Write a sequence for this structure.
């Protein structure tokens, strides 16, 4: 059953992922524009709000969403893991407060609101959006790392390693980090899903992308006025985003259950 769920998750996530990564290579040259929201006339999925071929827009529109989400998740953990490990292993209360308390302030602000506030002052591109989304995910990720690592750091084995003269790096990465790995892997699956939704929502609201960009989230926003006339321009990109997030959750969930069974 778990193996079947893992295979199902791989199949579900493979479709949007392959379209996102290989789509631009398969799209070819754009053809001439036609009337808005039409079906047929050589357009497999019809045309969008400005008469562009929807299938070509789908092939071009996933790479930004996927790469931005992956970059934001990776950047968030690159900051959160060291901060969380230091917070868990330090014996200096002031240092822990210095690291964790500013993150608590950021955590109190809703993620989307913070992204929109910063975007109202600056106009971020795809790179800026990835940095913004990473920033709003650092506080929560760091707290989870701190909690998971704190439990491992309180074990007698850590004190024994200290008495043996093991380096801080060996203790933090070799024992505490490894003990918290399963928790972090579970969090990564959930967090990547949340990041995908946040990136898509920001793009839907026009943050980080041009208003007429070939982007799945932008396609949903710009083509919704023609939903009942030409639904494929909205339904296809929306389903691809949902499939990507659902597939990621299924794969991580099944993989972690399988790992837990063999542990």
């Amino acid at each position: 059953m778990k193996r079947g769920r893992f295979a199902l998750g791989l199949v579900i996530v493979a479709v949007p992922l392959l379209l996102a990564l290989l789509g631009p290579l398969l799209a070819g040259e754009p053809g001439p524009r036609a009337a808005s929201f039409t079906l047929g006339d050589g357009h497999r999925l019809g045309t969008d709000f400005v008469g562009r071929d929807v299938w070509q827009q789908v092939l071009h529109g996933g790479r930004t969403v996927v790469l931005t989400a992956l970059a934001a998740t990776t950047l968030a953990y690159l900051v959160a893991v060291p901060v969380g490990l230091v917070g868990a292993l330090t014996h200096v209360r002031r240092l822990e407060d210095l690291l964790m308390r500013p993150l608590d302030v950021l955590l109190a602000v809703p993620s989307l609101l913070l992204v929109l506030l910063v975007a109202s002052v600056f106009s971020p591109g795809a790179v800026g959006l990835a940095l913004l989304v990473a920033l709003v995910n650092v506080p929560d990720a760091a707290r989870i790392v701190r909690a998971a690592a704190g439990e491992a750091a309180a074990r007698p084995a850590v004190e024994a390693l200290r008495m043996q003269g093991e380096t801080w790096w060996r203790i933090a990465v070799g024992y505490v980090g490894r003990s918290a790995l399963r928790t972090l892997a579970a969090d990564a699956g959930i967090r990547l899903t949340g990041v995908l939704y946040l990136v898509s929502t920001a793009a839907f609201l026009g943050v980080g992308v041009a208003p007429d960009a070939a982007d799945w989230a932008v396609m949903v926003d710009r083509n919704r006025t023609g939903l009942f006339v030409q639904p494929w321009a909205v339904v296809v990109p929306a389903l691809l985003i949902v499939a990507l997030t659902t597939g990621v959750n299924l794969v991580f969930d099944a993989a972690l259950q399988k790992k837990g069974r063999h542990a």
Observations:
- Residues 54-89 form the longest helix (36 residues).
- The mean pLDDT is 83.
- DSSP finds ten helices and no strands in the chain.
- Residues 111 and 136 are 6 Å apart (CA to CA).
